[in-house]
Amino acid sequence: MEVLNGTDLPVIDLSLFPSQNVDQNQLESHEFTKLRQACQELGFFLVVNHGVNPSLIQAVDGRIRDMFALPTEAKNRAIFPIFNTGYCSSIVDDVAKDSIAESMSFPWDQLLPNSVEKISAKLWPQGNPVFCEELNAYGAQIRDLSHRILKLLVWSLGVDVSSQSASELFEKSFGTVRMNYYDKCTDKEMISRPHTDVSFFTILYQDDVGGLQIRTKEGKWMDSKPLPGSFAVNAGDILQMWSNGRYRSAEHRVVYGKSNRNRLSMAYFFDLLDEFEIRCPKETIDQEHPQLFKVVTKGDTVAYFKKEGPNMATPLHFRLQ
């Protein structure tokens, strides 16, 4: 399949957006138009001037690399029975075309309170307070950033942030940070399993190794170049459904191994509690855009994902007949 090399994602400068309610003129501004187009066409964009401390990002990057360097027996102690929590070892098939990175997931808020401390205690029974302090600080700053991005996404769809349909996104949300470690491979190219994210949206830190690829509407894989100091943001399946199909949850993957360097990414999944009803706001429905999806809960989508795996079909499965 053809790959488009070295393509730049749209860059969204958060300092150019208002922090309070917006009027119609602002919604029609260049920046909001650019954001809408990115969500509609690619489902991916980069954010700069995001407010997360660069020194903290680099400190956490180093701590996470040290964590993945721990002995396997130590990391295996951090396996949890809760979905998308704790340690997961890497999986590579015979031809390295369906691999899954080694990962460690830290859910914040309701899913597993004090997850950093609980997982850290498994990894380092003697304690590691600096790791906990830095990772909790990073999680807090990313959480704040996720709320800023959520407001912009809601506004961009013409929905009032204070409306009931939007306020529930804040009230019934939580976040999970998943650290993905792609071990270097000198003898063959590795390709992670193509997937969409079963979340509302994802904020992704990636180092300068690169390797992220996005499938375009035309079915081609597009290389995405890392931009220092930025985060990549992509729409998830739930945002596609909540926006009545206006925003696109794009299939993506990572190609790695050729650089002979380890690759680290840190994905923050802005997600919703299982009882949240995915009901598209009335502002997204009109004659040209009839309602596309059934009203289901987030728990319904998780159950489907657990049964079928990351097969890029979650929104399609819940479409109205």
- CATH architecture annotation: Sandwich
Distance between the termini: 32 Å
Write down the overall geometry. Answer: globular
Number of discrete helical segments: 10
Q: Class in CATH?
A: Mainly Beta
Please summarize the sheet with the most strands. 8 strands, mixed
Total number of beta strands: 15
The helix content is 25-40%
What would you call the structural class? alpha+beta
Secondary-structure element pattern, one letter each: EEHHEHHEEHHHEEEEEEHEEEEHH
Please, how many domains?
1
What's the CATH topology label? Answer: Jelly Rolls
Q: What is the gyration radius calculated from CA atoms?
A: 19 Å
Order of strands, widest sheet: 2-3-11-8-13-6-5-4
| Quaternary structure type | single chain
Classified in CATH, the superfamily is B-lactam Antibiotic, Isopenicillin N Synthase, Chain
Integer average pLDDT? 90
**DSSP strand content:** 15-25%
Describe the structure concisely for a colleague:
The protein has 321 residues and is α+β, with helices and mostly antiparallel strands.
Give an overview in words:
The protein has one domain: Jelly Rolls (Sandwich), CATH 2.60.120. It is globular. It contains ten helices and 15 strands. It is of the alpha+beta class.
Quick tags:
alpha+beta; Jelly Rolls; 15 strands; 22% strand; globular; five-stranded mixed beta sheet; eight-stranded mixed beta sheet; 10 helices; 321 residues
